[in-house]
Design brief:
The chain is an alpha/beta fold and 273 residues long. It is built from eight helices and 15 strands. It has a six-stranded mixed beta sheet with strand order 10-9-11-12-13-14, with helices on both faces. It has a five-stranded mixed beta sheet with strand order 5-6-3-4-7, covered by helices on one side. A two-stranded antiparallel ribbon has the order 1-2. α7 links the parallel β11 and β12. α7 packs parallel to α8. The longest helix is centred in the middle third of the chain and has 14 residues.
Length: 273
């Protein structure tokens, strides 16, 4: 795969915008000031000879987002299938991907992906789950490691510190070392970016876990499973379909990870005392 990171960086990526705000204080006083909000823009991922996906996202780490999205949506199965990524200066917020065998890729989904939904256009969810191999059973972690990893995730969320508006995803190994981290306005985008970073540096994700700042839905589980991620730990809630898919895909699913408790919804044997 060609090294395109310097080219992609020229597109002017950013995570926050300054806006005018009218602030009302608890004592009744008012002021006009400036505040930072998280950036949300459409970014189009153009897959040569296949089609395009327009993703509502925070336009940072765009190359990682494009590669991670293409992989986690099952359009490619390994990074070697990507010949190159590229940008065209005349097309704002567009990143192109050339793949080895575009003829085998069928889109079969909506082409605009909202920042709150990654699988909104997918057809036949059960069939999608059946196409993903169950994860291996190699990861073992303690509950203390999960709690500490969630605390690391929070410390890494600098965009959240500035705006209160981002989600974070941190992929970690069995020792608790974070090997990839990303933020975005969308939960699934943050995971795609983190996965994409691992793919671009050819860092294996099999046998790893992922810590997430938001809730876990079906799309998060399928994206993790395609990467071989065996454990999902979230600060928030999980959905019923996420629990069902985690069982079928052999993923340990943890929600409401707190210093005083962890809810484990599937495959609890990976967590040891």
């Amino acid at each position: 795969m060609a090294d395109t990171s310097s080219t992609v960086q020229e597109t002017g990526q950013r995570s926050t915008d300054d806006v005018d705000v009218f602030r009302i204080h608890s004592d009744g006083s008012m002021e006009r000031t400036r505040d930072k909000v998280i950036t949300e823009q459409p970014v189009t991922i153009l897959i040569d000879q296949v089609g395009s996906f327009t993703v509502m996202c925070t336009p940072s780490d765009i190359e990682a987002l494009a590669v991670g999205f293409t992989f986690s949506e099952g359009l490619i199965s390994r990074i070697d299938e990507v010949i190159e990524t590229y940008v065209k200066p005349e097309l704002a917020n567009v990143i192109g991907i050339q793949v080895q065998d575009p003829t085998r890729i069928g889109i079969g989904r909506n082409l605009i992906v909202a920042s709150s939904c990654g699988m909104c256009g997918a057809r036949n969810v059960e069939k999608i789950i059946q196409t993903i191999p169950p994860c291996d059973q190699t990861l073992r972690v303690t509950d203390r490691l999960l709690i500490e990893t969630m605390q690391k995730l929070r410390r890494l969320q600098h965009v959240f510190d500035l705006t209160g508006g981002s989600h974070g995803a941190a992929i970690f190994d069995g020792s608790g070392e974070i090997i990839s981290f990303a933020e975005d306005i969308g939960r699934h985008n943050a995971l795609d970016k983190a996965v994409g970073k691992c793919l671009l540096c050819r860092r294996a994700m099999e046998g790893c876990g992922v810590a997430l700042s938001g809730r876990v839905s079906l799309e998060i589980v399928t994206k993790a499973a395609r990467a071989g991620i065996e454990l999902i730990a979230a600060v928030s809630a999980v959905s019923s379909y996420a629990v069902c898919a985690s069982e079928k895909l052999n993923i340990t699913l943890c929600g409401f990870v707190r210093p005083d408790k962890i809810n484990v919804y599937s495959k609890s044997e990976r967590i040891v005392s």
